[in-house]
Amino acid sequence: MDRYIKAPISDEDAKSLRAGDYVYITGTIYTARDAAHKRMAEALAAGENLPIDMKNNIIYYMGPSPAREGRPIGSAGPTTASRMDKYAPDLLDLGLKGMIGKGKRSKAVIDGIVRNNAVYFAAVGGAGAILSQRIKSSEVIAYDDLGTEAIRKLEVEDFPVIVVIDSEGNNLYETAIKEYCAE
After folding, report:
1. Which of 17, 115, 134, 145 has the fewest beta carbons closer than 10 A?
2. Does residue 8 have a cis peptide bond before it, meaning omega lies within 30 degrees of 0?
3. Phi and psi at residue 126, in whole multiples of 5°?
């Protein structure tokens, strides 16, 4: 089913999404990859505030290429999500409502998704140039010294993703395999 949602994502929208839904996100999302996640974990361990409030927000695991003239961002394809798996459960418990990446997630992340009524989306790998066309603005808001891995605030319009793991723990990667093998 095609769904159109606003970001930050409401609890109701997150709970209503089902594995396999095609979703178009409009609003504010944030980028963070390995180095930014490590730094946020260090901040939490030191009792410091995070540079962004996790409540109902979506993090896109992406590090863009340089922007071409006249564009807010370069190619913006997803990063393999499992690299953030050791950090994601803590962020989910702080209110993170959505994550965008590619690939499978650990049991701890899936448990965190279910516990917090969150969702994991996949963006199409290899389509970074096309995905960047859905990004209307990009602003570095934290960890500028990390370069492409800095945390960015993105304004997106109809950003296309697919629900892989929904708030009930249904996992498209597992159900799609079962359906394919049953044919």
Report:
1. 145
2. yes
3. 85, -5
